């Protein structure tokens, strides 16, 4: 059974202080420029490591650019057995509009 839910940026924001894992599936340079604090960048190369280290009960919030690709990714994660998977509506574009101060980058590191 594969089920995931959709989550608004507001509800996702409320998960920031909790133990949710934010997964950024955009391309690496977009991630490096700006991402949700502590988000993990996961691509096709990194997905196996990620899956090996995550717990099936973890709360996983996936986002892309606009909230379309993350639906397919959330479906995939749910298919792997994760029970708390969310696709963030509006993607990082919406997040940046709603929470412009709550972004970090890894360009200088
Ligand atoms: O990243 S996107 O599929 O929402 S354009």
UniProtKB/TrEMBL annotation:
Keywords: Transferase. Its EC number is 2.8.1.1. This is Thiosulfate sulfurtransferase GlpE. The gene is glpE. Residues 16-104 form the Rhodanese domain. Gene3D superfamilies: Rhodanese-like domain. InterPro entries: GlpE_sulfurtransferase, Rhodanese-like_dom, Rhodanese-like_dom_sf. Transmembrane segments: none annotated. SUPFAM superfamilies: Rhodanese/Cell cycle control phosphatase. One of its GO terms (molecular function) is thiosulfate-cyanide sulfurtransferase activity. It comes from Spartinivicinus marinus. The lineage of its organism: Bacteria, Pseudomonadati, Pseudomonadota, Gammaproteobacteria, Oceanospirillales.
């Amino acid at each position: 059974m594969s089920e995931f839910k959709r989550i608004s940026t507001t509800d996702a924001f409320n998960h920031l202080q909790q133990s949710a894992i934010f997964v950024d599936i955009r391309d690496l340079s977009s991630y490096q420029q700006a991402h949700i604090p502590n988000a993990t960048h996961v691509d096709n190369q990194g997905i196996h490591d990620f899956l090996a280290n995550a717990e099936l009960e973890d709360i996983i919030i996936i986002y892309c650019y606009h909230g379309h690709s993350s639906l397919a990714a959330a479906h995939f994660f749910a298919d792997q057995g994760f029970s708390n998977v969310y696709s963030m509506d509006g993607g990082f574009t919406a997040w940046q509009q709603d929470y412009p101060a709550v972004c970090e980058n890894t360009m200088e590191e």
